[in-house]
Protein 1
Amino acid sequence: MDRVALVLVIIGALNWGLISLFNFDLVATLFGDYTFLSRLVYGLVGIAGLYTISLLFREREKTVE
C-alpha cells in the first residue's frame, strides 16, 4: 500500500511541476477537463498524499544484512 501511495504522490508532484513550469496539466490532457476519470485521479492523488503523512510518524524497520 505504501508503494502505491508513493507512486500516486509522485504522479501528483510531477503533474504540479508540469503545471507550474509549462502550464501543462497532464492529467487533464489524458483524461479531459473535469471528467469523472480526471477527478478520480486527482482524488486518488489527494488521498495518497494524506496517507503518506503517516510515513513521517512510523518507526523505521531495521534490516539485518
Protein 2
Amino acid sequence: MSERRDHGRVVVVGAGIIGICCALFLRRRGFAVTVVDPEAPCSQTSSGNAGGFAVTEVMPMSAPGLIWRVPGWLFDPLGPLAVRWRYLPQLLPWLVRFIGSGSAANIQPRARALAALMTSTFDDFMPLLQAAGVADSVISAGALTVYRDRAASRADALEWQTKRACGIRCEELDGADVHDLEPDLSPDLRFGVFTPDWRHTLDPHRLATALVDLLQREGGAVRRGRVTIVESDHGGTHSVRLQDGSALLADRLVVAAGAWSRPFARQLDNLNVALESERGYNTTLPTPGVQLRREVIFAERKFVATPMAMGLRIGGAAEFAGLTAPPNYKRCAALLNLARTYLPALRTEGGSQWMGHRPSTSDSLPVISRSPRHANVFYAFGHGHLGLTQAATTGRLIAELACGDTPSIDIEPFNVTRF
C-alpha cells in the first residue's frame, strides 16, 4: 500500500464496484474517503453480473447495419433487445443517439479507446484482490465464443476484425476443437473463437464485498443514505445532503452512481448525459447437470454462460424499461430455453433469478471525467456491460485526476461533455 498524505475529504456517491474501486485508489493516495449509497455496498449489479473480466470486448454495441436489426428485436418481447412500449417515448432520444453512433467512422476510435482503458485491467485489479484475499476467485481460462458454423460467424466479421486491429488475441476453432474445450456443448456448434486473455470470477458478490471490507480496513467509510442534492460554496467545498436531513462535507466529490448518475450531472453541470438503464437478466443453476470450464458466449443469440462457485449462471440480452418498472422474469425463462438448445443435458430446476441495471451510454464508452464547472468534481459511470472489467482502472484514473496528475491514458474520449 502506498504512503498516504492528507489530501482532504472525498465523498463518493455510489457503492457499486466502480465507486468502491474509486474509493480504494483515493484512499491509497491519502484522501479521507466516505462512500454513500441508499443500498448495501455492491449489492446490485456488482454482485449479480456474469462475472467476466471481458478485456477483449472493445466493440461498441452500436455498429453499422444494426439499425436494420433493431425493429425485429423490438417486436420480440423476449428477444436480445426489448423495450417496454410505455418507456419508448422517454428512451427515444437515447435510442436515436445510440443508432447514430454506429457509423463505420465511429467504430475504430471508440474501440481503440476501450482497448486502451482495459490494457491495464489486471495490473490494476489483481493487487487489490490479493490485498482483499480473493485473488483465488479469478480464473484465467479465457472465453469461448461459439457459432453454429463458420458462415454464422460472418455476421460478426467486423467485430472480430476490430478486435484483432486492437491487438486482441483471437483463435479460430473448428467443431472438434470447440468440443475439446467444452465437451458438454451441443455437437451442432461447429465453429468458435477462443480469446485467451478473458478471465472470470467464480463469485462476483464475494469479490465485490471483499473489496468493501478492504476499503474499511484501510480507513475508508461506507454509509447508507440517499443523496438528494449537492450544494457547493465558492471555496470548492461541497455539502452532500442526504434524504434523512444529514450532510457530508467534501473537498472533492466523485459521482459513481451507475444508472442513477444522470441527475447529478444535470444538477452539477446542467448536462443531459445520454445514459440509460440497460436491464440484464440471469439465472444461476445450482445443479446444472453440465460442466463448463470457462465463460461461453453464444454469439448468435446474445447470451452467456459462466461457471461459478454457486452453479452455472446463464444470462444476457438487454431490456429498456427505466429504473422503476418491475422485472420481467419471463426473460430469464427465455434464456434458459435458449440455453437448452446449446447445452442438451442442462438441468434448469432450482434456479435463482436476477435482474440488474447496467448503466449504458449511447456510444458504449464510460464517463471518466472532471466536471466542466467544478474542478473538484469527478464523474465515473456508464460502464455498461464492462463495469467489473473497467472498475480498477477507472478508480486509478479518478485518483490521478483528484491528485492533479496527468492521467496515464488519454481520457478525452470519456469526457462527460461529449453528449
Protein 3
Amino acid sequence: MGNISCDNQGKAYRALSMPRPNPRQRLFFQAKQKYVIFGGARGGGKSWAVRWKAALLCFRYPGIRVLIMRRSYPELLANHIHPLKQLLHGLADYNGTEHEFRFPNGSTIKFMYCACDDDLLNIQGHEYDVIAIDEATQMSEYQIKTIAVCVRGANSFPKRLYMTCNPGGKGHQYIKRLKDRRFKEGEDPEDYLFIQSLVTDNAVLLRQQPDYVAQLKALPPKMRDAWLYGNWDVYEGQFFEEFTDDPSHYADKRFTHVIPPFEPPRGWKIYRSFDWGYARPFSCAWWAVDYDGVIYRILELYGCRKDRDGQDIPNEGVKWIDDKIFSEIARMEREHPWLAGKSIQGVADPSIWAGAENGVSRYDVAVRHRVYFEKGNNDRIPGWMQCHYRLAFDENGYPMMYVFNTCAAFLRTIPLLSYDQHAPEDLDSSQEDHAADEWRYFCMTDPIQPRMAAAETKPGFDPLNQFARRRK
C-alpha cells in the first residue's frame, strides 16, 4: 500500500512504508464484518497482517483502543511486541509496565495473554474498540466469547474482533463451525467472514525460506493436512480422528456419523449409559440398537453449567446431588415418548457402587428412583478400541454407530479430545471426556470385531443400490 504519512496536531513524523499485502491479507485489511477470521495453514502471513492492521487503525482513528491477545506473554513478545517496536520506532511509545503502545493522537495498542480461564479476570470490565486474538484456536470457545464481550464502546470507531488461527487446539470446533457457517440462534451470518490463508499466499516467506513448503510436506499426514493445506476436518493428536459430521450425507447415512433424529422403531432395544460428575459434568445417554447391531445415540442428559447466553461452560458441572440426577433420569424415562414404557438396560461408571455417605452408594440412590445399572467395564484401551471399531466405515461407507444431531454435548466434546502425551494409546483424561467415558462403557457391553476399511471410490460402487439393500 506504499508510504503512510503519520502526523498529529501538525507535528510531522517519518513516513511509514508498508509492504504490498498479498491478496488474502488485502481482504483482511478491507473486511468490514464485526468478526473476521483469518485462518488456514501455517505461514500465511496472519500475524504480520494483525500488526499492520492494529497500527493502521491507530493512525486512522485518534483515541481508538486496540487489544492484541495470544496464549502466552512470550508469544506476544516474539510475534508482536518486538516487531512493532521496530515498526513504530519514533511513531509511538511503548510502556513496558502497562504492555501498551501509546500514540501521540491518543490511540493505544495493548497486549494481554490468556493461558487459562483465570486470566480472563484481567480483562473483565475492560472496553476495546478492536480486539485481535492471534492463534485463536489455542483458546477455548468460552475464552473467545468472554474476550469478545469486551468489544464495545460509545463512540464511532469500528468495532471488530479479528481472529487468526490454524486447525487444531481447544477452539478448533468452534472456529470450524463459524468457518462452515453453521450459525446458532443469535449469531448474524452477515457479521462473520472467514478468509482462507495458505503458505503459498506468502510470497515473501517463500522467497526468504524456499524450503518451508518441503518442511511442511515432511510432517505426519494429519499435521501436514492441517498446516500445509488448511484442512479443518482433522488435526494431529485428535483422538477420534475418524469421527465425521457431513450434512451432505445425512440422507443416505454414508460417510457420516451424524444424522437427523427419528423415532426408533418399536422392535429396537434401548440402553442407557452413565458417567457420574458433580464439579465436572455428569453424562447420561440413551442408545437405540437396530437389528444389525448398529447403535444410535438418540438422547442425552448432560450436567454442564451454562453461561448467560445458555451456552455450555466447558467442563464445569451443575453440581447436582445424586437424588436430583437420578430423579431427572427417571422423569425422562417416564415422560419421553421414545423411552416411556420401554425396558431399558443401563451401564455405568463402576465408581458409583463405592460408598459415598453413611454407607449409601450412588447406585443405591439410583435404585431408589428405579434407575438400574450394571457395572461398566473400565478397561480403557480395549474400551477406546471398541469406540474406534464402531466409528469405522465398512467397504460401502457405513459405520456401526450414529449420533442424532440433537446430542449437543457429544458433538461438542468428542471432536476436541486428544491423546495422552504420557500414555500414547490412551485419551487425555484431563479433558472434557465425560460423554466419551459413558460411550466407552456402553460399547464394552457388546464388543465387536474390527471391520474392513471403507473405500468410497471403489470401482463400480453404486451408492443408491447399496443403500437400497441396507437398513432404512
